[in-house]
């Protein structure tokens, strides 16, 4: 008989509780020896059968019913015994039983299902705790005496597309602690299963929290509806807010930067933990006082990365005078490059004179250039007239009146700024020129094909005409010698030509570079200065910074040099230390995404909860 086999396998398992008037060991012996039921008086037999025979026959439903009824009688110890047997049976049971999933697996750990009521759109699971005792929250005594029971409701994860309500039967126990002031206590299920007073199981709350973090209020609510999770958008936000907490680890290296609530109107401050690579806090504005207050309470901070503008440097110096400040490396490099561009822009006059002092052959121009060239001839006539008057000593205001041109034009002529043949502004092609030139050199000469490729691969938005004009110019430039067609490039192009390797220049381009280098040595000096700065940052060697500053202050990039002098310690730290503010910039990108997901209406605490709560903990 199955039961006796089972008992032999597990001699330690007790089947019956001893206080019902039976000798459980006697029963065990009888079952083992005879394989039959013992003869028990009728009154007790009922209970005996309830408890015992289903186990022998492995009737799963009967066992569950039995557990329930045993529990309902209030005999938790019987219930416990039977449950142990139940576990034994299912662990050691036959294969058919292994395959069926016990209903208790469908509800959170520690609960036993009494009943499932399945409706079309929801399931109500009546459950109770599997534990037979409770700890008193005041004195910690174990209580086993049940005083009463009540029902508590909570939502759980959906099953098969149906919402699940748990109807939890909660027992009240009497506390047996002698000196405890509390007489009655309700059993608790643990914060990781079902927190006290919570209307959701913890596993549901976790999903709700993550939905709220990932999608925000309303989008998450509609997603939750589809997932059959019963939460409203307000609940979602409430959960996100409630579970948000500022990380409490000791901060040593931080990055600080501002972000725009509304560009040019309202800014906030973000602080990131650079070691752990995550945001720490959002501050409501970017005032020095706000940052200072926050920093003052965190003396453990030793290194702060920040960009060079703004008042964070000063706030830091006041709040944490011992901390090392690090200028942002990317901004340093970028500012240096920009300083060279500014130097070239400031020298455009001599550059134009050097590059543009050549004769133009109208036969070689493209049609658009010919139009520009005709405009140039007209302009030259005007310029001559204006120059004649300037030389005669007529005041600019009077000249403007005489010629009908604006004072701006007259001033430009006086300064010699209106003598370009062709427009030298940055064209839409500027960005694509390196790619186009490479294609051209590799033999791709069909303008339409180039245009298509440029559109597909590079996202070029301009028209075919632009590329056509460019191709014509290239073709003619190849036929004619470099001198016959000169078009003064824009400042940005000159910067590019002057900073890329000589090997990558076309013949015409090297002529331009040679002309600039030959006649405007200050620009060459500026280029070398900036290149040295870049090299210093790349090699992480600040030994030459002092002499570099002297050189920079004397040349075209003096403004940049003065900036470096003003912030020398932070620049040195940027060169030497591995920390930089790139991470913070990345977090700001993420912050912008989260902010826009909430249509820009999320308040500071919610934004912070979503940004910081989402980081891996
Ligand atoms: Zn107590």
Task: Describe the structure using short key phrases.
alpha/beta; 27 helices; 12 strands; 617 residues; disordered N terminus
Textual characterization of the structure:
The protein is α/β, with parallel strands linked by helices and 617 residues long. It folds into five domains: 2-95, no CATH class; 102-199, no CATH class; 253-328 and 580-613, Ribonuclease H-like superfamily/Ribonuclease H (Nucleotidyltransferase, domain 5); 349-357 and 492-578, no CATH class; 361-491, no CATH class. The protein has helices at residues 2-9, 24-34, 42-57, 60-73, 76-92, 95-99, 202-215, 217-226, 233-243, 288-296, 312-319, 329-346, 348-355, 367-391, 396-403, 407-415, 433-441, 447-458, 464-479, 491-499, 507-519, 521-539, 545-553, 558-566, 568-576, 582-597, 604-613; strands spanning 111-118, 122-129, 134-135, 142-143, 146-159, 162-174, 184-186, 253-262, 266-273, 278-283, 303-306, 324-327. Strands 1, 2, 5, 6 and 7 form a five-stranded mixed β-sheet that branches. Strands 10-9-8-11-12 form a five-stranded mixed β-sheet, with helices on both faces. Helix 7 crosses helix 9, helix 10 runs parallel beside helix 11 (312-319) and helix 15 crosses helix 16. The longest helix is centred in the middle third of the chain and has 25 residues, at 367-391. The structure holds zinc ion. Zinc ion (ZN) binds at residues 136, 138-139, 141, 175, 177, 180, 182.
């Amino acid at each position: 008989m199955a039961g006796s086999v089972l008992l032999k396998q597990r001699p330690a398992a007790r089947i019956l509780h001893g206080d019902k008037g039976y000798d459980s060991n006697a029963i065990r012996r009888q079952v083992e020896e005879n394989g039959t039921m013992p003869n028990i008086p009728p009154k007790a037999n009922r209970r005996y059968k309830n408890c015992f025979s289903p186990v022998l026959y492995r009737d799963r439903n009967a066992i569950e019913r039995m557990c329930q009824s045993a529990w309902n009688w209030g005999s938790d110890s019987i219930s416990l015994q039977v449950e142990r047997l139940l576990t034994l049976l299912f662990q050691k049971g036959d294969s058919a039983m292994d395959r069926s999933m016990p209903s208790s697996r469908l509800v959170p750990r520690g609960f036993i299902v009494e009943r499932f009521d399945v409706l079309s759109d929801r399931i109500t699971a009546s459950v109770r705790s599997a534990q037979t005792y409770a700890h008193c929250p005041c004195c910690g005594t174990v209580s086993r005496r049940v005083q009463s029971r009540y029902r508590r409701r909570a939502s759980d994860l959906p099953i098969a597309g149906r919402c699940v309500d748990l109807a939890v039967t909660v027992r009240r126990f009497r506390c047996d602690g002698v000196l405890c002031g509390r007489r009655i206590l309700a059993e608790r299920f643990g914060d990781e299963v079902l927190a006290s007073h919570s209307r959701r199981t913890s596993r549901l709350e976790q999903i709700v929290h993550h939905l709220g973090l990932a999608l925000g209020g309303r989008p998450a609510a509609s997603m939750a509806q589809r997932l059959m999770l019963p939460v409203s958008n307000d609940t979602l936000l409430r959960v996100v807010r409630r579970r948000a907490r500022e990380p409490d680890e000791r901060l040593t290296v931080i990055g600080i930067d501002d972000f725009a609530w509304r560009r040019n109107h309202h800014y906030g401050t973000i602080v990131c933990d650079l070691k752990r690579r995550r945001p720490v806090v959002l501050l409501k504005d970017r005032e020095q006082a706000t940052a200072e207050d926050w920093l003052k309470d965190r003396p453990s901070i030793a290194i702060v990365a920040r960009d060079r503008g703004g008042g964070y440097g000063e706030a830091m110096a006041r709040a944490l005078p011992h901390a090392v400040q690090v200028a942002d490396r990317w901004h340093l490099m970028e500012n240096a490059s920009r300083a060279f561009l500014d130097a070239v822009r400031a020298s455009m006059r001599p550059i134009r004179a050097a590059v543009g002092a050549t004769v133009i052959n109208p036969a070689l121009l493209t049609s658009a250039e010919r139009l520009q060239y005709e405009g140039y001839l007209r302009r030259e006539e005007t310029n001559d007239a204006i120059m004649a008057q300037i030389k005669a000593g007529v005041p600019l205001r009077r000249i403007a009146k005489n010629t009908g041109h604006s004072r701006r034009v007259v001033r430009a002529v006086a300064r010699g700024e209106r003598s370009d043949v062709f427009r030298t502004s940055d064209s839409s092609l500027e960005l694509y020129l390196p790619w186009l030139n490479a294609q051209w050199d590799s033999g791709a000469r069909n303008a339409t094909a180039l245009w298509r490729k440029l559109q597909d691969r590079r996202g070029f938005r301009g028209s075919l005409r632009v590329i056509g004009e460019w191709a014509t110019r290239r073709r003619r430039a190849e036929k004619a010698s470099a001198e016959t067609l000169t078009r003064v490039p824009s400042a940005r192009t000159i910067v590019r030509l002057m900073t890329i390797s000589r090997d990558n220049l076309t013949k015409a381009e090297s002529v331009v570079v040679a002309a600039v280098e030959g006649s405007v040595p200050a620009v060459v000096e500026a280029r070398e200065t900036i290149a040295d700065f870049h090299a210093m940052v790349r090699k992480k060697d600040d030994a030459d910074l002092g002499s570099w500053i002297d050189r920079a202050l004397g040349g075209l990039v003096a403004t940049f040099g003065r900036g470096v002098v003003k912030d020398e310690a932070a620049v040195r730290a940027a060169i030497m230390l591995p920390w930089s503010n790139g991470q913070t910039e990345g977090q700001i990108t993420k912050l912008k995404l989260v902010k826009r997901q909430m249509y820009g209406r999320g308040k500071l605490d919610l934004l912070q909860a979503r940004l910081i709560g989402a980081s891996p903990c």
